[in-house]
Amino acid sequence: MSDQTVGLSGLIPVSSQFLFEVDGVQIGIFGEVSGLELHVEVEEYSEGGENGYVHKFPGRMSWPHIVMKAGVTNSDALFQWVSKSSGEGYAAAGNKLNRCTGAITAIGTDGRRLRAWELQGAFPVRWTGPQFSVGSSEALQEELEIAHHGFKSRTFSPS
C-alpha cells in the first residue's frame, strides 16, 4: 500500500478531538462528528436495442446534516452565530440568511491539525444542551447539528 492510500506520512492518523470554527471563529471542540458524507444520485437511461446494460449517469449531489457530539463550547460564539441565522437576528437581516463557512478540523493526539473539512453555506439547525443531574458524574456535553451545501477537504502538512 502506498503512503498516499494509508494516510499522513504512511501512518493512519488518529484524532483525539475535533475543532469547529465558523468563518475563522472557534465555536467549540467536540469528541464525535457524524454526517460527513456525500451522496450522488444515479440517473439511468435504458437505450433501445441495448439489453446488456443500462447507461448510468451522475445526478444531483446531496449532503446530510453534520452532527457534532461530546463537546462543550467555551464562548458565546455559537449563540452569536445562531442568532444571526434565526429568530430576531434573521428578521433584522431582512429574513436573509447569511451563510457561513464552517470548518471541522481533526486534531491529533499531539495537538497538531491533521485534516480539515470546510463546509460551504453552513448554518445551525439544532443545538442540544447538557443534561443536568446532581446524581451524575457524567461530563457535560452539547450537541450541534449543521446544514450545509457541501464541503472541501484539506490535509495539513506534517511538521
Compact overview of the structure:
The chain is mainly beta. It has helices spanning 3-6, 77-85, 87-92; strands spanning 15-22, 25-34, 39-45, 55-62, 66-72, 100-108, 113-128, 142-147, 151-155.
Overall description:
The strands form 2 sheets. Strands 1-2-5-8-7-6 form a 6-stranded antiparallel β-barrel. A two-stranded antiparallel sheet has the order 3-4. It is 12% helix and 48% strand. It has one domain: Pnp Oxidase, Chain A (Roll), CATH 2.30.110. It has helices at residues 3-6, 77-85, 87-92; strands at 15-22, 25-34, 39-45, 55-62, 66-72, 100-108, 113-128, 142-147, 151-155. The chain contains 3 helices and 9 strands. A hairpin with a 4-residue loop joins strand 6 (100-108) and strand 7 (113-128). The protein has 159 residues and is mainly beta.
